[in-house]
Specification:
By secondary structure, this protein is an alpha/beta fold. The chain is built from nine helices and six strands, in the order βαααααβαβαβαββα. Helices cover 42% and strands 12% of the residues. Helix 6 links the parallel strand 2 and strand 3. The radius of gyration is 17 Å and the shape is globular. The termini are close together. The chain binds 1,6-di-O-phosphono-beta-D-glucopyranose (B16) and magnesium ion. 1,6-di-O-phosphono-beta-D-glucopyranose binds next to helix 3. GO terms for molecular function: beta-phosphoglucomutase activity; magnesium ion binding.
């Protein structure tokens, strides 16, 4: 039986990837190279510092640790300017309704995100009250595909992993769910997320009844 839904943030609840992309692109241009939307795919679900390392690899640059920290901080400040402009309208279609439906059906809800800004973002879009637990980049030591973020979410909810389903837009996130012994639903492109139990394009047509019909748990 299904008892809990655990959601990734970026790419599932909100599309903050476009803000990350703009901020990283500006940083890359400042260092004298370009960073494309195609390159940006590699940053999905990846931590801030690891993202910076990938970008420096693309630009074939090596920098000392203190400069890397300064760059990551500056990128985050630029990114947060966009986050502060977010409103309820930035929640992806169907997500708020689906979260409300989960809770009405007695399912627990948790967030499992690599972002250190997760609470701030949920507050901006007014979704904090719809989550029973939040586990984010400030709570975990190991990045997805390590299952830590989702296992901590399940633990905070008091639900066994086998009774949890994870919603993820990144392959590493689906692997994290699997590694934690959880079911997983891919949100996005079926050709990329083929290893999920099933894939939905978004939450517009998603219902708790459909989730139970599919008998993922
Ligand atoms: P921050 P998710 C991830 O969020 C993003 O997909 C990834 O692009 C970003 O680098 C990471 O959060 C860290 O974000 O700089 O805010 O700590 O998909 O795990 O919700
Ligand atoms: Mg994501």
């Amino acid at each position: 039986t299904l008892r809990a839904c655990i959601f990734d943030l970026d790419g599932v609840i909100v599309d903050t990837a476009k803000f990350h992309y703009q901020a990283w692109k500006t940083l890359a241009h400042g260092l004298g190279f370009d960073f494309t939307e195609h390159d940006n795919e590699r940053l999905k679900g990846v931590s801030r510092m690891r993202s910076l390392e990938i970008i420096l690899e693309i630009g074939q640059q090596t920098l000392p640790e203190d400069q890397k920290l300064a760059l990551a901080t500056r990128k985050n400040e630029a990114y947060l300017e966009d986050v502060h402009r977010m409103t309820e309208a930035d929640v992806l279609p169907g997500v708020r309704r689906f979260l409300e439906e989960c809770r009405a059906a007695g399912l627990k809800t948790a967030l499992g995100s690599a972002s250190k800004n997760a609470r701030l973002i949920l507050d901006r879009v007014n979704l904090l009250p719809l989550f029973d637990a939040i586990v984010d980049g400030t709570d975990v030591a190991n990045a997805k595909p390590d299952p830590e973020v989702f296992l901590k979410g399940a633990e905070a909810l008091g639900v066994e992993p086998t009774h949890c389903v994870v919603f993820e837009d990144a392959v590493a996130g689906l692997e994290a769910a699997r590694n934690g012994g959880m079911h997983c639903v891919g949100v996005g492109d079926v050709t990329i997320l083929a290893e999920a139990d099933f894939v939905i394009p978004g939450f517009e047509d998603m219902t708790v009844a459909r989730l139970q019909e599919l008998e993922v748990c």
